[in-house]
Write a structure and sequence with these properties.
Keywords: ATP-binding, Nucleotide-binding, Transport
Strand order of the largest sheet: 5-6-7-3-8-9
Strand content: 25-35%
Bound molecules: adenosine-5'-triphosphate
Oligomer: single chain
Structural class: alpha/beta
Largest sheet: 6 strands, mixed
Number of helices: 11
Radius of gyration: 23 Å
Shape: elongated
Number of strands: 13
CATH superfamily of the largest domain: P-loop containing nucleotide triphosphate hydrolases
Pfam families: ABC_tran
Distance between the termini: 33 Å
Protein name: ABC transporter, ATP-binding protein
GO molecular function, one term: ATP hydrolysis activity
């Protein structure tokens, strides 16, 4: 069977700024349409990856290709739309004027009217950019990212600072665009965003991809259970029990991740027969993210 061509391909990709190693050798192959989320905490290397893919930063070593072309070439640029975190747009132009201007950069753009309709901008298309709310600005930026009818869109933290309604509105527009056969690569700090939007989630930590799977696979990867209770047994002792892979203390509760819940619990009960408020649950994706981004696999 013929494989679909790579939209974003990286092999042993490294990027350093002086002595700071932002990306420490990642391998990545994004093929076909859909929404791909790169999830990670501050400084994980997400923006560096996007800037390298756009040709705004030079890679230090390894290979990086965007739709089969080197980053930053005209061929690549024509097939890419982008929202960066620090998008600086002319304040005095209206939304419609900005869309018209951006459309002129691309060989086969959507019409301005279609773009306004796809992004539901009708109510403020004739307003100057500086008069828009934060949520409206993000939607206008998204319109600028898609007006060129690109195959690939990079969205760097597209919903940071938006309230939940504005965030959900933008998610709906992003989903619709992916359904048209486009590829969207977005970075986010929000697990909920990745869970709601993405077909595939890549978790980045300290310049490395520590997990790469569908939201449900990431959940499956987290074997075992989370035991939560109030106990007098110390953190140090809990850590050493059979099956325990991590322990955290939250207020009066200890949270113990165990891959052998029966054995861990039996040891906990013999150490502290009075432990109370016990619950045992499957780990949430959030727990998995926390553990993986601390390097615990
Ligand atoms: N222009 C630069 N010069 C020097 N160091 C940089 C530069 N850009 C990023 N870094 C460093 O590279 C590392 C990765 O930063 P990057 O912005 O890629 O992370 P991020 O995952 O996007 O973080 P955030 O979620 O905060 O945006 C950090 O240690 C950061 O300080």
């Amino acid at each position: 069977m013929q494989q679909s061509p790579s939209i974003l391909y990286a092999s042993n990709l490294k990027k350093s700024y002086g002595t700071v190693e932002a990306i420490k050798g990642i391998n990545l192959n994004i093929q076909g349409s859909g929404v791909y989320a790169i999830l990670g905490q501050n400084g994980a290397g997400k923006t560096s990856l996007i800037k390298c893919a756009l040709g705004l930063e030079k890679i230090t070593s390894g290979t990086l290709q965007v739709i089969g072309s080197a980053p930053g070439t005209l061929q690549a640029k024509r097939q890419i739309g982008v929202i960066l975190q620090d998008s600086d747009l002319p304040d005095l132009l209206t939304v419609k004027e900005q869309i018209t201007l951006f459309a002129s950069y691309y060989p086969t753009p959507f019409s301005v009217e279609k773009t306004i309709e796809m992004c539901a901008l009708e109510d403020f298309a004739d307003k100057r950019y500086k008069k828009l709310s934060g949520g409206q600005k993000r939607r206008a930026q998204f319109a600028l990212a898609i007006v060129g009818n690109p195959q690939l869109i990079f969205l760097d933290e597209p919903t940071t600072g938006l309230d939940i309604e504005a965030r959900r509105n933008l998610w709906a527009v992003i989903r619709d665009f992916a359904k048209q056969g486009k590829t969207i690569v977005l970075t986010t700090h929000y697990l909920e965003e990745a869970e709601n939007l993405a077909d595939r989630i890549m978790i980045m930590n300290s310049g490395i991809i520590v997990a790469d799977a569908s939201p449900s696979e990431i959940q499956k990867q987290s074997k075992g259970s989370v035991i939560r209770c109030e106990t007098s047994t110390s953190y140090e002792v809990l850590q050493k029990l059979t099956g325990v892979s991590s322990v955290s203390i939250s207020g009066r509760f200890s949270e113990i991740h165990s891959t052998d819940v029966n054995q861990s619990l039996s040891e906990m009960l013999s150490l502290d027969p009075n432990l109370k408020d016990l619950t045992v649950n499957q780990p949430k994706l959030e727990d998995v993210f926390g553990r993986l981004s601390q390097g615990v696999k």
